[in-house]
Sequence to fold (328 residues):
Amino acid sequence: MTLKKFFSISIIFVSLFCFSNSAFAVNQVVTATAVIQAATITLGKLKDIDFGTITKSGSPGTVTINASAGAATPTATGVGIAVTGGNSGEVTVDSTVTANVTITYPGPGNLLLSSVTTGHTADQQIAIAQFSTNSTGTSLSVTAGTSSTLHLGGVITLTAAQEAGNYTLDLTYGVNY
Amino acid sequence: MKRFILIFIFINPSITFAATVAVVNNLNFGTIIPHPSGQAIRIDASSGPSVPVLYSGASSIISGGISGRIRFLPDMAGQIVRIFYPVSLTLTSGGNSMVINNFASNSTNSFRTSSSSPVDFYIGGILHISTGQPGGNYTGNMTININVTNP
Fold:
């Protein structure tokens, strides 16, 4: 092989060598981020449930607030029982996201005569029940940025010898996503 | 023979290539108030810069956020650049986590340089938010691989 030939082959070899290495790679680190804010529900009580002023008659009876379709007033059943005033309860529901929320209602309870501190007799208590069937229901659609309203009712049952006075009971409702 | 060796040594360093790659902005899904039942948020940057939108699931509130943007400085025109992404990335916040995947289908996968001017490419993906995902600042790092073939 002459020196000239040898150089020619060498140049070809070098050229091929360059071409075969004309690809390369680099790595790059990229950061990804996201901020999650948990959705929240805020409740605001506008009105307590008020069964009004009930005139007793010596007969048992019931007073119902049926707020299943919206705000309502009490109606009485029973011989000679009358009711004036009163209103369903109202609670506003605000959510940071649009969602259907589930409402849980209290179980049956007893309103207690306020003038007696302990040891209430049967006639010093008024049974209250049927909350969910006389209120907004167990599901409510809420829209982010818009207040929705829960309307709350129930049924109280009076004894024939119900003592006169103011009766109260604290009730707890739950609203969850 | 001695001449040949000298030439070879002289040429060999010229086959070392380099490219400059820099992050212009990282991938940011913004601030999300997710629906408690969870959902997926997508940034589709397959055809350019983009912002996060609800991809599946119930409504949520998304503010801010933008696709990742990487700047590639070519050595020459005609370079073919292929970008390879991880299959998924886990973002963490304390002991909590979320997953981003589908990078390849929501990002730039390849391009050809037409000059030596910088070229930006974009990164998106799908963020999966679980039911009851705890609040927090979630972050994670991934490595993308950029392959360059010279003309």
Remarks:
- The first helix of chain A runs from residue 3 to 20.
- The CA atoms of residues 12 and 18 of chain A lie 10 Å apart.
- Chain A touches chain B through 31 residues (CB under 8 Å).
- Helices of chain A lie at 3-20.
